[in-house]
Amino acid sequence: MNDTELMVLPLVVRIERAAPPERTDALEAAAMAVLSLLDDPGEWGAEVRAWESTGKIRKVVRRARGAEWRRAAALPGRTLEHRTAEVRVHPPVPLDDWPRDLARLQVSGTELTDSGDPEPVVAGAAGPPVLWANPRLAMSAGKAMAQAGHAAQLAWWAGGAAEHDAWRAAGLSVRVRTAAPDDFAAKVAAGLPVVRDAGFTEIEPGSCTFVAEAPWLYGRLTRS
């Protein structure tokens, strides 16, 4: 196995004890941070291309607070602020060679909740792409953030220049919601971009975790 096959995209979510983010905000921020890097990798273009070329798009979410967050923010990367959430995306790194200040951060402890129900998404209404979570799977917020990032990436891959331009003009925004069980199955069957988990953590290999939906995604070939 070569080095590019072992690359991973690090994401760090800021979780301060006194003011943790809303769960939905954190999931949406993670997806938007991934999209930001795909749209404009900047000086990390070579790393992003090598990571994307494998098709594995592995992501790991870690949490930070206080001095940990400040150290993470000093490393190469960019921070996405979205309502109550702050998520920092770093350029892809080899799975076993993380920068020390990222490697020391905890993966566990990303249990976030929403203080209220997210605004419902009306079927057929105009708006940003929706990333639908599988209601039959229980995932920590960190796991769900990585899966939402996967779904956003598959939707990006499935789009063309016109769709990318429109999405960029809308700030690369997304909505993350939990689907009704029957609706989730129907969206998978419709051929929308679907994330099938590799099974490294929390859930069984091959589980469908998220589906991405936007009008322009119907009928597109996708990679998952």
Compact overview of the structure:
It catalyses: an N-acyl-L-alpha-aminoacyl-tRNA + H2O = an N-acyl-L-amino acid + a tRNA + H(+). The chain is an alpha+beta fold.
Any overview of this molecule?
It is a single chain. It is built from 7 helices and 9 strands; from the N terminus they run E-H-H-E-H-E-E-E-H-E-H-H-E-H-E-E. The chain is an alpha+beta fold and 224 residues long. Strands 1, 2, 3, 4 and 5 form a 5-stranded mixed sheet that branches. The protein has a 4-stranded mixed sheet with strand order 7-6-9-8, with helices on both faces. A hairpin with a 2-residue loop joins strand 3 and strand 4 (85-89). One of its GO terms (molecular function) is peptidyl-tRNA hydrolase activity. It is an enzyme of class 3 (hydrolase).
Q: Which sheet architecture does the biggest sheet show?
A: 5 strands, mixed
Outline? globular
Number of distinct helices: 7
- CATH fold description of the largest domain: Bit1
Q: Helix share of residues?
A: 25-40%
As residue ranges, the low-confidence spans are none
CATH class of the largest domain: Alpha Beta
Question: How far is the first residue's CA from the last residue's CA?
Answer: 20 Å
Class by alpha and beta content: alpha+beta
By CATH, the architecture of the largest domain is named 3-Layer(aba) Sandwich
Overall pLDDT score: 92
What is the total domain count?
A: 2
- Rg to the nearest angstrom? 16 Å
The arrangement of helices and strands along the chain is: EHHEHEEEHEHHEHEE
DSSP E strands, number = 9
Report the sheet-strand fraction.
15-25%
Question: Which properties best describe this structure?
Answer:
four-stranded mixed beta sheet; 9 strands; alpha+beta; five-stranded mixed beta sheet; Bit1; 224 residues; 2 domains; 7 helices
